[in-house]
Amino acid sequence: MAIIKLKPLCKKDPIFNGRFITFSTNKKKEKKMDEKSKKKEQIKDKCHNAKRKLLFLENIGDHNTPREVMLKNLINVLEKNGFKIRGKK
After folding, report:
1. Per-residue model confidence as pLDDT tens digits over 9-26
2. Could you tell me if residue 32 is inside a domain?
3. Other Cβ atoms within 10 Å of 65 Cβ, number
4. Secondary structure class of 22 (helix, strand, coil)
5. 18 lies in which domain range?
6. Residue 73 near residue 61 (C-beta atoms within 8 A)
7. Per residue in 28-76, pLDDT tens?
8. Please, are residues 73 and 60 in contact by the beta-carbon 8 Å criterion?
9. Contact 75/88 with Cβ under 8 angstroms?
10. With contact defined as beta carbons under 8 Å apart, do 58 and 77 qualify?
11. Cα four-point dihedral sign 31, 37, 43, 49
């Protein structure tokens, strides 16, 4: 069991300066936490580095175009770019 020593704090103590850091005494737990944070950073970097290119950019309508016409235009554009559409209306 760990022995904890308590002492009174002074005004120059780091907890009052905003630089207070806690330390874990469990090395295995600390190592796992570091590995998890590294994995999260790698995933984040991988997502940011993998820039996706637009497959196509064509206008299918504006805000005044009816929904059915937009749907037909979208289906036509997708078919023109090699997509297969099931259950067309």
Report:
1. 777 776 777 665 666 567
2. yes
3. 12
4. coil
5. 14-49
6. yes
7. 777 888 888 888 887 777 666 666 666 678 888 999 999 999 999 999 9
8. yes
9. yes
10. yes
11. negative
Residues 6 or more apart in contact with residue 85 via CB below 8 angstroms:
75, 78, 79
Q: Rg of the chain over CA atoms, in angstroms? A: 29
**Which alpha helices (H) appear in the chain, and where do they start and end?**
14-17, 27-49, 67-80
How far is it, in rounded angstroms, from Cα 71 to Cα 88? Answer: 10
Would 3 be classed as within a structural domain?
no
Give the contacts of 2 (CB within 8 A, at least 6 positions apart): 25
CB 38 within 8 A of CB 46: no
Q: Is residue 2 part of a domain?
A: no
Do the domain assignments include residue 24? yes
Q: Which residue carries 């905003």 as its tokens? A: 18
Residues 6+ apart with CB under 8 A from 79: 85
